Structures are given as structure tokens and as C-alpha cells.
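Quick board copy: two proteins, each given as sequence then C-alpha cells.
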Amino acid sequence: MTRRLVGTFDAARHSRSQVIGYLKRNRKHMRYEICLAKGYPVVSGVIEGACRNLINDRLELTGMSWTPRGAESMMRLRAVHINKDWDAFWKHRSQSERSRLYGIEDSGFREIRDHEIRRAA
């Protein structure tokens, strides 16, 4: 039991020293006082909120588990949806797939094929 606690303490100390080292090495890039003086926003709270909205609200639902690849795919699709880029994404995706599968570029019959795809789904 004592050995286990010591190991945990050592791991925590190692993690802290890694973070401190990172901050020291990158200190020159973290000039918040200059950004604030020029009126630039320091937006860590906004970024955290966006991460919560984009990632946590979807990926951390009860009973879900994700592989890294699946989680990244879901995050990308969620970003497309949240940014209201779904129509442009779907147009690009369908053109790319038609070209890859059939070697043809998109024709004027896209609406008919997309309607058939939606109906089939």
C-alpha cells in the first residue's frame, strides 16, 4: 500500500515538473500582458466553452465509448454541423465519392441522386 502511494506521488510530481518545464520553455510565446494592453482578447474561457460544446456535449453522453479515430471523425462532423457548413460538406463529399468510385465528375443529375440517397437511407 505504501509503495503504491509513493508511486502515485512520484507520477504526480513528474507530471507537474513536465508542465512547469513546458511553461518555462514557452514563456516567450505567452505574453498576455502585451495582448491585454493592446486590447486583444485572451480567450481561454471561450476556447474551453467551445471545446465543451463541440466535444464533451456529444462524446461524453451516458454509455458511449469511442476509439480515437471514431471520436475524431465525430468531432469533425460535429464541427461541420455547428458551423452550418453541412450542405457544402455534403456536396464536396458526394462529388469526391462519385469521382473515386465511378471516375465521373458531378453532372446535372445531382439533385435526383441525392434525393434517391436520402430516400434509401
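And the next:
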Amino acid sequence: MAAITAASNLNNSTNMLNESLAMLSSGSKIVNPSDDPAGLAESISLNAQIGQTQAANDNVSNAVSFLQTQDGYLQQVGSALDQMSQLAVESQDVTKTNTERSDYQQEFSTLAGYITDTGTKDFNGVSLFSGSTLAVTTDGVGSTFSMTGINLSASSYTTASSADISTTTGAVTALTSVTAAITQLATDRATVGANEERLTYTGDELGVLQDNLTAANSQITDVDVATESTKYAEYQILVQSGTSMLAQANQNPQSVLKLLQ
């Protein structure tokens, strides 16, 4: 009976040692579903939320890159419009000839062509300046933010691009059109800035949420190495002492056999 009891205790200690070893080697408190069924279910849900939040954060980051690309183009369009307005004023100089105004018109038309060409640019196949409102996913449950589009084909831009400064009268009209386009550009850049600010805040929020979800999941699944290492040492001692005691228990019947000799 002593040997049977020692063997049973040794078996229990060995099982606990193996469980502790599995936790330390995997870094997880839940090696098998039976270790913590409720914790496992919660961890699965948290992992899904973490993945969804990361995906939403990626979407927001891409949208911010889209907006930054938009603004980069709009800055150059602004420079072109500034130069066009200067040309329109210079073309009104009464001391200049129509031949000289034709030279100004050539430069004016080239800049207008640049603005028109910019309106066709895209970001990863998505038009930058079609004016379409884009719905950006902002969280893991599919909520969206309507990102107002920018349209470089709007009448204020096309009117300015089609202006003619080869005559004094045309230059006066062109200046009015270019000024209107500059005003529209200011509004468009403010819209891009507001969209970017909104999504930047959303991205920061998603980053904090992901960190918190990861921390919560860690509390459920990650093993406490310091505590488990102490337990592992304890189980090692129990296994070693159990093995020794089992050997001793198996030796005890030998004294009975000596009485029969």
C-alpha cells in the first residue's frame, strides 16, 4: 500500500510538472481548452477584436496617406494658380504689345494644362480629384466616416484654365476667374485638412484601443513566468522526492521476506 500511495503521488506530481513545463515553454496559461474554458472563449473574442481594430487602423492610415497625397498636389496647383494670376495682371500692362501678351498666354495655357492634368491623378487606382465622397471604415464593427471629395473639374477651376490673357480685356476676365479658383482651392485644402485631422484622431484612438485589448488578452492567456517558474521548481522537487520515496516503499517488503528465511 505504501508503494501504491507513493506511485499515485508521483504520478500527480509528474502531471503537474508536465503542465508547468508546457506553460513555460508556450508562454500561455491556456495550453489545453480544459485549462480555462471561459478564459479561452474570452481570449478568442479579444483576438478577433484586436485583428478587426488593426485592420480598421490600417484603413485609416491609408486614408490619411490618400489625403496627404491630395494636399501635395493641391499645393502645386496653388503655386500654378498664383503664377497664373500674376501673368493675368502683367498681361494688363498697357505698355505691352499683343505679341508679348501671346507669350504670357502660352505660359498661362501651360500652367492651366498642368491643373487639368492633375485632376486625372489617382492613388492606388482611386481617383484623387473626382469629387466622390469616400466612406472610410473607422472601427472594428464597420462604422464609417464620410471623407468629402475634392473636384478639380469644378467650374471654378475649368473656367480659370480656359481663360485667355492674350488681350487686355481677356486678362481682366482671367484674373477674376483665377481669383475665384484660388478661393475654391483654399476651401478644398481646408476640407482636406479637416478630413486628415479627423482621421488622425481616429487612428490614435484605434491604437490605444488595440493596446488595451492586447493587454486584456495578455492578462487572460500569458503565463506569469516568475510564479510558474517557482511552481516548476516545486514540482521538480516533488517528483524527485516522490521517485525516491517510491523506491523506498518498494524496499520495505524485503524486511518481511527476511522473516521467512
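Board note added afterward: The domain at 57-222 is CATH 1.20.1330.10 (f41 fragment of flagellin, N-terminal domain).
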